Amino acid sequence: MELERINTKGNVPVPDDELMHLADRIVALVEDGKRQLAVSINQIVKTTYWNVGRHIVEFEQQGNAKAKYGTSLLTRLAQILRARVGRGYSRPNLNNMRKFYLMFPICQTSDKLNPPIVQTSDRLTWSHICELITIDDPLEREFYQNECISEGWSVDVLHRQKESGLFMRLAQSKDKEGVLQLAHHGQKIQTAEDVVKDTYTLEFLGIEDKSRYKESELEQKLIDNMQKFLLELGKGFAFIDRQYALTINNVHYHIDLVFYHRILKCFVLIDIKRGAVKHKDIGQMNMYMGYFAKEENVEGDNPPIGIILGHYKDELMVEYATYGMDSNLFVSKYELFLPNKEELRRLVKAILK
User: Fold this and answer.
1) Which distant-in-sequence residues (6+ apart) come within 8 Å of 180 by Cβ?
2) Quick check: 279 and 271 in contact, CB under 8 A?
3) Mean pLDDT score of the chain
């Protein structure tokens, strides 16, 4: 439908393209205003809740970490606040506000007339904060906070990564300095080792650990849950193809999954094994990597990464079978259930001693 024309001088109509350009500028202005409003509201909500927590702590503890009055204070206070200011101030919520103040103590300085303002990233909503304050270990909490900010994690993503013990799984293969770097600066991708995990958690597939399933069924479930699988793989992965066909001397082969890593600028080849990885699987992956390096790489591409994903891993066999091979070839395990986070936490604490 032709736009209604607006006369600005006499009977001269406004050209459609100029009117559309004006509308585009106004829409951009309105959208920017909405974003700024959302950021302001988010910051005001967090500042208000942080200051509520501050008042509670100062009242019940005189600024100390150990409560003087116990949980009865929050129960009684919640009853009063719900009657006077409405929903949102239940005992669990007040407890979250109290923990928010205790775990995020740094705030913007202010004068005597104005309360202090908590400084947290605009990317952290109150829902993010409620997830983060359930993590007691400060290093672990700092890692997830940094990843939320740098990667723009939603609350659902944060919850899943936290429940899968991402920080501790990444920290297992590092020394003390590496764990501290991971916590303070988040996950940095510089080498192939930075993008490959020792164990991948695939609980989102909904496969029972003892049930029977074929490799093709496992692959199909990964395809059906590609968004979650990409999340588990980590930052930088882009899906290219499944059952990637290649022919060498009239023999046909198929690579289960092919990805491209936009940060490392290389192909990532993944073969899936339902049971244990065997030495012939390693040799075959090495051949796939050689083919991609010679036939598929273009200018600017780095050598490919190969990952064989098996339910079991014989460390000694892998050590012997990969002797002298490309350092970009990895054998990893997958598990069909969430890991024991307490056991992982003990392992990480042992590294930090």
Assistant:
1) 139, 352
2) no
3) 88
